Amino acid sequence: MIIVTAFFYIYVMISQAEIKKIRSLHKNKGRSQHQCFIIEGIRAVEDILGSSLDVLDVFVVKGGDSLTPGYKSFREISEKEMKSISALNSPPGILAVVKIPPPGNINPEQNLILLDGIKDPGNMGTIIRTAHWFGVNQVVCSTDSVDIYNPKVVQATMGSIGYVSMFTDELSDFLDKYSKEYSFAGLMMEGRQLKDVEFSKDSGIALIVGSEAFGIREEVEKRLDVSVTIPAFHSQNKPESLNASIAASIAIYHFYGTE
Amino acid sequence: MIIVTAFFYIYVMISQAEIKKIRSLHKNKGRSQHQCFIIEGIRAVEDILGSSLDVLDVFVVKGGDSLTPGYKSFREISEKEMKSISALNSPPGILAVVKIPPPGNINPEQNLILLDGIKDPGNMGTIIRTAHWFGVNQVVCSTDSVDIYNPKVVQATMGSIGYVSMFTDELSDFLDKYSKEYSFAGLMMEGRQLKDVEFSKDSGIALIVGSEAFGIREEVEKRLDVSVTIPAFHSQNKPESLNASIAASIAIYHFYGTE
Predict the structure, then answer these.
(1) How far is B246 from chain A, CA to nearest CA, in Å?
(2) ipTM attached to this prediction
């Protein structure tokens, strides 16, 4: 009798309607409708629980990973149920549903990074993670960038999504609006060598990273204070390019990590 | 009659035995048996054709991507055949079979990078790509690293695999052997701040990057000339870590890209 009760208890812990709702958060449309996103894995979930973001639910596979004392409440589900709500091929066994924070305001006293049309979720997530590492906690994305709360972006941030304020805006408008507060440095294929560019402390530093395929768009480029580039060592065979998140991270290190 | 001939012509362009052989190159065992590896995508294949590596075959999907004049000879296969030999979920339509080069000799007059137990193919490939960008053309991997010619490593190098000499060795032996020729700098969680470490021009620079999970192993660590670290900006919430290929690339930029 006890066994039956226990089984029933686990069974009702997540309804089909909830499964459907959480699955819808894998896609842009569902996230926009419910204003929630998901994040998976014990470290990432712990990081989010420690952040100011509003965690609505934590689902854990019964008999899965051991839990740290940080958890006050979570809901146990079966492995099969976890598989049906997870966005990963190999679900790590813990998934949180998190409220998308309301749009905040730019703090012009703090540095920021702008992403102009970044399409690869791994690149965007990795750039957010690197920004957080070097203390940059504001990232502004152009409206045609990959969605910030795409599960692959969120996973690649490794929890940093909880500590970096994310904004979406038309970048050319943004540059016009904040031309006094920030020095805008665009990472380009051609420009001044990164190592030779330094800014005075009178304004904030705003690094702009362009899309993987097309770089920074023209209307943003003409508003830059400086174009910077990371030159290749010219051997007989110059390589194609650097990976976008690698190039961005090197520039982030140069501007924000070496003071 | 002409149609039949044409069909027959395409059909015999790749045999089942060849398909089986190329598929075996997806795995370590097959590569080691046949001493070949594969690389896919038009840019990567062109880069390899321009390198000193020995390209045995280039397969192209009939009616697929247009080809540049660089190609002297290639073999047309069907989309289905390409799918069966490709290591990618979405085959780009062009695949080359390349001979694994015979082990060469270290050139102690040139800089190098050592990878101690890197397990993620994307990380290893990205580090090789960044090394090539900054003119480092020797990479030494510990014997327990992911296989250099794993298709995911090769893809992530974006063709740079053709321009960087790859070695596999026991790193502690290597450090003993080349202690006079190189200054060995290990990227660690703790150590001297990267930005403060410079080497004289009297010796080569050898950066060592440790595994994603365990860092640099002890017997290598005790042979280092210097431990370097990329400090996080200490906010109230220090992030977990940098991605391994990001940390490596920042150190590569610092040591090899800013002269």
Answers:
(1) 6
(2) 0.88
